[in-house]
Amino acid sequence: xxxxxxxxxxxxxxxxxxxxxxxxxxxxxxxxxxxxxxxxxxxxxxxxxxxxxxxxxxxxxxxxxxxxxxxxxxxxxxxxxxxxxxxxxxxxxxxxxxxxxxxxxxxxxxxxxxxxxxxxxxxxxxxxxxxxxxxxxxxxxxxxxxxxxxxxxxxxxxxxxxxxxxxxxxxxxxxxxxxxxxxxxxxxxxxxxxxxxxxxxxxxxxxxxxxxxxxxxxxxxxxxxxxxxxxxxxxxxxxxxxxxxxxxxxxxxxxxxxxxxxxxxxxxxxxxxxxxxxxxxxxxxxxxxxxxxxxxxxxxxxxxxxxxxxxxxxxxxxxxxxxxxxx
Length: 327
Fold this sequence. Notes:
Blueprint: H1 7-17, H2 22-29, H3 33-43, E1 49-50, E2 56-57, H4 60-74, H5 79-85, H6 97-123, H7 127-140, H8 143-164, H9 169-192, E3 199-204, H10 212-223, E4 227-232, H11 240-247, E5 251-256, H12 264-271, E6 279-283, H13 290-295, E7 299-302, H14 305-315, H15 322-325
Parallel strand pairs: 3-4, 3-5, 5-6, 6-7
Antiparallel strand pairs: 1-2
């Protein structure tokens, strides 16, 4: 006679039946399908089930495993070390402080190598090599980590170096920025077709032409499932209400910079109450009258992209209104 199943057994059985393809796993974890495949192929971090035709199938257990991997990455562990820690020997989950320091140094070295290679390729104006470094990094690590540890440090280094180089420094910064815009744009259009979540508007404030920060935010938002309507640089504020109404967007994100004209504070404070959706302010908030904007109902995101994304998600989860947002 079969023993009665406990609630835990029933829950496990239910999870085992809830299998889904890699596209759904990508949506649920904000990782690209290429990264998920690379983790499986190169490090054995995932072991999906297969359909008779060979298609990968995943479960809730895989989502929990990926969450653990991402936490370990945030703690400074490298992918090879994480693969070792998550192997069948559960005792490897307990590691010494010295091991933590060593692994953190190893991961830092990996990113320093990516940055160094990118700077060298940029100084040679070599698009193929820049592409190769970016492809390697983005195939193995989440887009937020690539932004924080490769793209932003490279931009900062180029912004410092051009002032010190008697020749070529300015050209290098322009070359890399142009490459980055083109590459992010291509990835943006590819990612949009896979997004199913809430529709949001992203645009730079009037007079703001440096849009890299907003593009990076938008790409990470797309990875989380948001359908981003991207309007780029220098969008007049009086267009926002019309865009929001016609697009059925659920939120607006405005990018700012220190050189923004301060009269925009008053314009924003008057616009916000007219909108039926929340308005977020991202980027350097030095020129912003935060108290005025917040009293009008605006939400300040700040300049740190990772922090801004967490704040944004807390106010508007990507899939909170996905079904009603279909159009």
